[in-house]
Design brief:
By secondary structure, the protein is an alpha/beta fold. It is 38% helix and 12% strand. It contains 14 helices and ten strands. It has a six-stranded parallel β-sheet with strand order 7-6-5-8-9-10, sandwiched between helices. The protein has a four-stranded parallel β-sheet with strand order 1-2-3-4, with helices on both faces. α8 links the parallel β6 and β7. α1 crosses α2 and α7 packs parallel to α8. The longest helix has 15 residues. The radius of gyration is 21 Å and the shape is globular. The model has no long low-confidence stretch (mean pLDDT 89).
């Protein structure tokens, strides 16, 4: 299928008029074909890193084979840490260039939108539980679908014990893999304080409506919720989108950090979330200075003029592409 798509794409006359290509994620079959055709024709590809995952996630090396630097000539990342991680992965192109600049301005514009915080349901749980048919399990030593569901259900049962109402935001599904409802959904239906919210909405349009955010796992979602300034409870699991060892110290200092595999995890989380929302917010303010370094190293190198700085890097790269 890859060979056939590459042949079809190579015969497309549009490439005769293309001088460079701007691309998002290239990890699918279309990105791989595009990369092969463009390389053969000497057309430079500029790719933009998807989220901040590279900076913070504890990925096995084989998982990096589909990162941007495997297919693109230039990759724009969000931080210097992200850039170095993408550049030093074992499948990186020999002449690939990667620069850390920052998150897009729309990420920070969300802070300026008018939202009414839902004080009746103050907590939003942002699920990272993507049911993908065990697609990555053999390669990445992650959970299978059954284990994912049991872990998520465990968290829901813990949250059902706290004195606050919680909104559960499911991870978006492009194609549903299972007919039966998950154990997680069944647990939510039995709980008295948890409801499902924004099933078909992107999380960035919901975060402003809540006072406390819960994120289980090192994913790009953090790049959307961190700039909101709202208190973040980060739950790290050893076998589910785990955080890198290097990132843990700053996460512990800057966020409300919990280890999901800790034998006292349930007790600690219930005690913490049994506090008033006001108390949690006050403790969050006390961590303000610790979050500044976390922001620059793992979230966004710059927060202003990111578009201009990106354009300057791209123009300079394209002007010198054929000279390298």
């Amino acid at each position: 299928e890859l060979n056939n798509l590459t042949k079809i794409m190579n015969n497309d006359k549009i490439f005769e008029r293309v001088s460079f290509i701007l691309a998002g994620s290239m990890m699918n079959i279309y990105g791989r074909s595009l990369s092969e055709v463009a390389t053969k024709r000497g057309i430079p590809i500029v790719s933009f890193s998807h989220g901040i995952t590279h900076e913070i996630a504890n990925y096995p090396a084989i998982y990096s084979s589909h990162w941007e630097s495997s297919f693109a000539d230039l990759t724009i990342a969000h931080t210097d840490k992200g850039a170095s991680t993408i550049l030093n992965q074992p499948y990186c192109r020999s002449k690939a260039k990667v620069f850390g600049i920052g998150l897009t301005s729309r990420t920070f514009r969300l802070n300026n939108l008018f939202y009414r915080e839902n004080t009746d349901v103050p907590i939003l749980y942002l699920s990272t539980n993507l049911q993908n048919g065990n697609e990555t399990t053999p390669l990445c030593n992650q959970e299978n679908e059954w284990e994912k569901d049991k872990r998520e259900t465990k968290t829901i049962k813990i949250l059902s014990r706290i004195p606050h109402f919680v909104a559960y935001k499911p991870y978006p599904e492009e194609t549903r893999k299972f007919i039966d409802p998950s154990l997680t959904i069944k647990a939510i239906e039995k709980s008295k304080n948890i409801s499902i919210a924004g099933q078909n909405l992107d999380a960035r349009f919901l975060i402003g409506n809540y006072e406390i955010l819960i994120l289980p796992g090192a994913t790009s979602t953090l790049g959307w919720i961190f700039p909101s300034g709202k208190p973040i409870i980060f739950i790290n699991w050893s076998n589910h989108l785990s955080l890198s060892a290097e990132a843990k110290p700053l996460f512990r200092k800057g966020l409300f950090y919990f280890e999901g595999d800790d034998k006292n995890f349930e007790k600690k989380l219930v005690i913490f979330l049994s506090q008033s929302i006001k108390e949690i917010k006050l403790k969050w303010k006390e961590k303000r200075e610790d979050r500044k370094l976390l922001m620059s190293k793992y979230i966004s190198k710059n927060i202003t003029n990111v578009g201009n700085k990106t354009a300057i890097k791209i123009i300079s790269f394209l002007e010198n592409f054929n000279k390298d």
